[in-house]
Amino acid sequence: MGRPRQVTRLSSLLATRARRQCRSNLLDVGVSTKILPEAVSWHFAGTWAHMPELVEAHGGSLDEEFPKSKALIERAVSLPVTVEMDDDLPELVRGALVDALGVHSLDSDGRA
Predict the structure, then answer these.
(1) For residue 20, which of 92, 68, 72, 74 has the smallest C-alpha distance?
(2) Which domain holds residue 21?
(3) Secondary structure of the chain: what % helix, strand, coil (to 5)?
């Protein structure tokens, strides 16, 4: 029974490293970003223990609630929404992510 947990931890560790590398590469090209798990307490209802109505509605604990949302957030790197951006910003972002993820290119939808 320990094997799936070990695989999950390894996947999580690799995902964490990839997120951190994405963030580092984006910062290197001048794109401000955050790794969402660092900001999750503000943005994710699964951490809002200060809201008694929410906690009570979920049986007294939010620890195991919202697993799909939590899984998505834990894989994410945020990018700023830029209204007036430099023309080369999209390519800078794409290049930083391609380098961080160790892929040759990304499709227009961001898939390797």
Answers:
(1) 74
(2) 1-32+79-112
(3) 60, 5, 40
Question: In terms of domains, do 50 and 73 share one?
Answer: yes
Answer for the pair 97, 51: CB distance below 8 angstroms, yes or no.
no
Domain count, the chain: 2
Same domain for 43 and 74, yes or no, is yes
Looking at the structure, do residues 38 and 74 belong to the same domain, yes or no?
A: yes
pTM for the full model? 0.59
Residue that has been written with the tokens 């955050």 in this structure: 34
User: Quick one: pLDDT band at residue 76, thresholds 50, 70, 90?
Assistant: confident
Q: Of 28, 8, 1, which is closest to residue 99 (Cα–Cα)?
A: 28
Asked whether the beta carbons of 103 and 21 are under 8 A apart, the reply is: no
- Does residue 63 share a domain with residue 38? yes
Kindly report the number of other CB atoms within 10 A of residue 97's CB atom: 21
